């Protein structure tokens, strides 16, 4: 039996393009180091990430859709002076967690929720926090666990 490569979809919210680029760089490095394949789609904000993951998962069960083994959610939400931060941060996390539990999806969470841009850079930089790489690794670990528990080849 020939084992197929793991294929991930990276869904990135691009509210802060420089930070997003660094998160993506870390995620891609981790995925490639593992020997997996990936695609990338972009949405304009973190709040759109759960919906995009849900659409991609549904499309993967259609004849022309791509089936993904897991998803990597990347984005950044920086606290402002309004309640908007809490809504975006909480609803993005809740939406992704609902997909993990309800649909049994492997999703690596790399959405930064910070008070200021400097904190985001510290967490995003591959040379420092590498949250993009950590999210990709978490997704890959979840896929391996899922396969182990279901008795599938890794």
TrEMBL record:
CDD domains the UniProt entry points to: Lumazine_synthase-I
Residues reported in the UniProt entry to bind 5-amino-6-(D-ribitylamino)uracil: 46-48, 76-78, 109
EC number of this enzyme: 2.5.1.78
Keyword ATP-binding: no
Domain of life where this protein originates: Bacteria
Pathway(s): Cofactor biosynthesis; riboflavin biosynthesis; riboflavin from 2-hydroxy-3-oxobutyl phosphate and 5-amino-6-(D-ribitylamino)uracil: step 1/2
GO terms for biological process, alphabetical: riboflavin biosynthetic process
Protein family (similarity comment): Belongs to the DMRL synthase family.
Known role: Catalyzes the formation of 6,7-dimethyl-8-ribityllumazine by condensation of 5-amino-6-(D-ribitylamino)uracil with 3,4-dihydroxy-2-butanone 4-phosphate. This is the penultimate step in the biosynthesis of riboflavin.
The protein's name in its UniProt record: 6,7-dimethyl-8-ribityllumazine synthase
Classification lineage: Bacteria, Pseudomonadati, Pseudomonadota, Alphaproteobacteria, Caulobacterales
Chain's gene name: ribH
């Amino acid at each position: 039996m020939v084992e197929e490569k793991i294929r991930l979809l990276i869904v990135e919210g691009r509210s802060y393009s420089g930070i997003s680029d660094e998160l993506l760089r870390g995620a891609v490095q981790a995925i490639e180091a593992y020997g997996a394949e990936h695609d990338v789609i972009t949405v304009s904000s973190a709040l759109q990430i759960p919906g995009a993951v849900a659409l991609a998962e549904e499309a993967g069960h259609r004849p022309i859709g791509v089936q993904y083994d897991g998803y990597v959610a990347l984005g950044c939400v920086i606290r402002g002076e309004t309640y908007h931060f809490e809504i975006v941060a909480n609803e993005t996390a809740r939406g992704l967690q609902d997909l993990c539990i309800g649909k049994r999806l492997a999703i690596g969470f790399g959405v930064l929720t910070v008070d200021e841009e400097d904190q985001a850079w510290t967490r995003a930089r591959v040379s420092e926090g590498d949250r993009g790489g950590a999210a990709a690794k978490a997704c890959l670990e979840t896929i391996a666990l899922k396969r182990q528990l279901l008795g599938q080849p890794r």
